[in-house]
């Protein structure tokens, strides 16, 4: 048996070795790097004029979508639905789209941020001689290249390191990665390469050194998923589609044709105003991801469900956990899953998990999954890097819509790729797939919709190579013009250029004067991050309707640092209120709604629960020590620390702290949410700090400084010294 095992391994190595040798000997000599000549974006004057025209208002879109019969109505505003809308409208079809929340508010904004073909899928394709899986990888690699071409400001190649800890795995993984290059063919991003141990540690110094033999580096794509979706939505609208967020489908409209029931539109509700109206359409396409079956059963209540939702958790750690431009792949975790460890937006994203779940509007990360990811990270990082629970800046869950194919007899088997279903009532359903292949999925869906619903002759698909909003005038050096022309600081200018492309100039024009010598314009929403107030104004032009649309998807602040997002919320709401005419009551409701989102969906509640669950295990001496620290602020011996105690302390030490920041400092430890920190909460804080659950606490720092101040005073008054 053991001999067979090694023989099997040698066969695999031979197969991959031949593929790798062919790649090295035949493919590379004829292959020029895709980017050696820089970015050359092809666009005509008509396209540029269309992309720079003012966008219609939300009210104009509502009036348009309800006033005439559409050719295509798309339900679902994630990557797939937006891709379908863009494909249909560029073919000349009258197209509308409705999304019950914000564009990409679900799974499409909660991905691993990769645009990839799937290294592990290729491995399965070769080992199992699976042609279907091989075709899926090849298609994804082609779409990967296309997505980077059409939105170079949002998507780019990212090197990913695969550390190798056994010698026999070096040729095995090398051959596999070279095969991945080979399948990409002329659309290869950049060639993979092998690194020695010393070079690997030079590029990724946080990596565990023990037993490391070598490392492989290959290239996949990375993008800002939510911004990519917003760009798809805006591009579709510019080409004539009427795309509406916060518009929920209440029921499907039906008619009879030749004695058979047909879906002919939808009854929808504007969730912001409560108004309901009908949208009539010749063809309705269901692209609702995890909600696939809820729309299918509106069409036919007896239909079998095909969606099997799975939760994928990601966590965000500070930037020092990874190099600025090198990701890491763990190909075999303790439970057989794959985990990526990637730099993104000046932080580090780690994930994902894969756990069966129920469909919900508010998916939440769990402490169990967060700890699983942290433990896996510890296996790959140098022991000098202490992986602490308190370093988790944000955590989120995305529901992946795994589907079984209703077109096959064995409906229990999960489809490896996407599934397109045409119901008897002509409801078209597109489900499954992944971000990378959204465009090809959309093309296939519209092709089948035209045929099934008799939409008549239309032009062929035009989205391959079609530049998205912001790409037409973009260049890698655009940020320099923003610095020179507007007086923006460099970090902000780079962020705007990489987020909005050529539309960064429009954002810059909305920027307020700072009153400083430098930067001249561009007031930050939060001092630690490059998001500026002008982005809130621009977000409303991109159909942001609620505060969470700004902090989660127009900017990515809630995904990057949930605490920073919470601190920026009041200013975001004030600016939106001024623009949208919100009352004080509406502002309070928006604040409560957004804080609820941060607590449940961005991991804030999970972290607080973790802090409360930390076991108190202090000695008598330690308790006495912490009691003294507590009383150093509670000078009135009330039994709790209030905002007045903090205010008095900072005044005594000569430090000016704004009132809102005083409340933030207190809230870090106010687990009971009663504006008071009692001794129990205080001891919980000290224990959480000792266990690494809380790091960099401003409250704890104030106590520490206060204690040092008291010691100094005691010594001086006693006449101590030598």
From TrEMBL:
The keyword Membrane does not apply. Keywords: Calcium, FAD, Flavoprotein, Metal-binding, Mitochondrion, Oxidoreductase, Repeat, Transit peptide. It is an enzyme of class 1 (oxidoreductase). InterPro entries: DAO_C (IPR031656), DAO_C_sf (IPR038299), EF-hand-dom_pair (IPR011992), EF_hand_dom (IPR002048), FAD-dep_OxRdtase (IPR006076), FAD/NAD-bd_sf (IPR036188), G3P_DH_FAD-dep (IPR000447). Its main location: mitochondrion. SMART domains: EFh. Pathway: Polyol metabolism; glycerol degradation. GO terms for biological process: glycerol-3-phosphate metabolic process. SUPFAM superfamilies: EF-hand, FAD-linked reductases, C-terminal domain, FAD/NAD(P)-binding domain. One of its GO terms (cellular component) is mitochondrion. One of its GO terms (molecular function) is glycerol-3-phosphate dehydrogenase (quinone) activity. Its EC number is 1.1.5.3. It is found in: Mitochondrion. The keyword Protein biosynthesis does not apply. Residues 621-656, 657-692 form the EF-hand domain. Its cofactor is FAD. Belongs to the FAD-dependent glycerol-3-phosphate dehydrogenase family. This is glycerol-3-phosphate dehydrogenase. It comes from Arion vulgaris.
């Amino acid at each position: 048996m053991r001999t067979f095992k090694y023989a099997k391994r040698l066969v695999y190595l031979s197969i991959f070795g031949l593929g790798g040798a062919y790649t090295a000997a035949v493919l590379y000599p004829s292959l020029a790097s895709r980017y050696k000549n820089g970015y050359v974006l092809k666009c005509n004057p008509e396209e540029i004029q269309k992309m720079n025209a003012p966008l219609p208002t939300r009210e104009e879109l509502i009036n348009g979508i309800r006033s005439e019969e559409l050719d295509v109505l798309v339900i679902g505003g994630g990557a797939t639905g937006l891709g379908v809308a863009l494909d249909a409208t560029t073919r000349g079809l009258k197209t509308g789209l409705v999304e019950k929340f914000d564009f990409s508010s679900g799974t499409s904004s909660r991905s691993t941020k990769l645009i990839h073909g799937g290294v592990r899928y290729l491995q399965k394709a070769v080992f199992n001689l699976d042609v279907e899986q091989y075709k899926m990888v090849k298609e994804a690699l082609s779409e990967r290249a296309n997505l980077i071409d059409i939105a170079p400001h949002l998507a780019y190649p990212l090197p990913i390191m695969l550390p190798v800890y056994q010698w026999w795995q070096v040729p095995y993984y090398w051959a596999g990665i070279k095969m991945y290059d080979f399948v990409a063919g002329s659309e290869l991003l950049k060639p993979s390469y092998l690194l020695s141990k010393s070079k690997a540690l030079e590029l990724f110094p946080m990596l565990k050194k023990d037993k490391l033999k070598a490392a492989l580096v290959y290239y996949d794509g990375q993008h800002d998923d939510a911004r990519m979706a917003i760009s798809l939505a805006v591009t579709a609208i510019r080409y004539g589609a009427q795309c509406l967020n916060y518009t929920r489908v209440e029921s499907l409209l039906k008619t009879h044709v030749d004695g058979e029931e047909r879906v002919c539109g939808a009854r929808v509700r504007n969730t912001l105003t409560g108004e309901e109206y009908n949208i009539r359409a010749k063809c309705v396409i269901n692209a609702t991801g995890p909600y696939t079956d809820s729309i299918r059963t509106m069409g036919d209540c007896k239909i079998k469900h095909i969606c099997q939702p799975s939760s994928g958790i990601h966590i965000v750690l500070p930037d020092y956990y990874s190099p600025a431009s090198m990701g890491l792949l763990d190909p075999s975790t303790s439970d057989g899953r794959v985990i990526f460890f990637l730099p993104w937006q000046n932080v580090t994203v780690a994930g994902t998990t894969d756990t069966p779940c129920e469909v919900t509007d508010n998916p939440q990360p769990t402490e169990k999954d967060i700890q699983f990811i942290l433990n896996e990270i510890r296996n790959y990082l140098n022991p000098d890097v202490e992986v602490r629970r308190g370093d988790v800046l944000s955590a989120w869950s995305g529901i992946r819509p795994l589907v079984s194919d209703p077109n096959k007899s064995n409906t229990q088997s999960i489809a490896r790729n996407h599934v397109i279903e045409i119901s008897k009532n002509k409801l078209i359903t597109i489900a499954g797939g992944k971000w990378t292949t959204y465009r090809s999925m959309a093309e296939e869906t519209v092709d089948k919709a035209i045929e099934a619903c008799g939409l008549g002759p239309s032009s062929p698909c035009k989205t391959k190579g079609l530049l998205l909003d912001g790409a037409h005038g973009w260049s890698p050096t655009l940020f320099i013009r923003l610095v020179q022309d507007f007086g923006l600081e460099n970090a902000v200018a780079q962020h705007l250029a990489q987020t909005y492309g050529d539309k960064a100039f429009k954002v810059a024009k909305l920027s307020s004067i700072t009153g400083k010598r430098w930067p001249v314009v561009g007031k930050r929403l939060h001092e630690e991050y490059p998001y500026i107030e002008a982005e809130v104004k621009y977000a409303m032009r991109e159909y942001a309707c609620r505060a969470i649309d700004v902090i989660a998807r127009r900017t990515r602040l809630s995904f990057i640092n949930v605490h920073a997002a919470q601190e920026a919320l009041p200013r975001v709401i004030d600016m939106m209120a001024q623009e949208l005419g919100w009352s004080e009551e509406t502002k309070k409701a928006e604040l409560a709604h957004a804080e609820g989102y941060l607590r449940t969906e961005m991991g804030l509640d999970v972290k607080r629960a973790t802090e409360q669950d930390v076991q108190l295990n202090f000695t008598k001496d330690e308790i006495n020590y912490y009691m003294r620290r507590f009383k150093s602020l509670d000078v009135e011996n009330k039994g709790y620390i209030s905002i007045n105690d903090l205010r008095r302390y900072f005044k005594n030490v000569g430090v000016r702290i704004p009132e809102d920041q005083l409340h933030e400092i207190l809230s870090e430890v106010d687990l009971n949410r009663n504006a008071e920190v009692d001794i129990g909460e205080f001891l919980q804080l000290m224990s959480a700090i000792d266990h690494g659950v809380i790091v960099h606490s401003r409250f704890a720092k104030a106590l520490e400084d206060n204690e040092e101040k008291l010691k100094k005073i005691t010594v001086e008054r006693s006449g101590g010294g030598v």
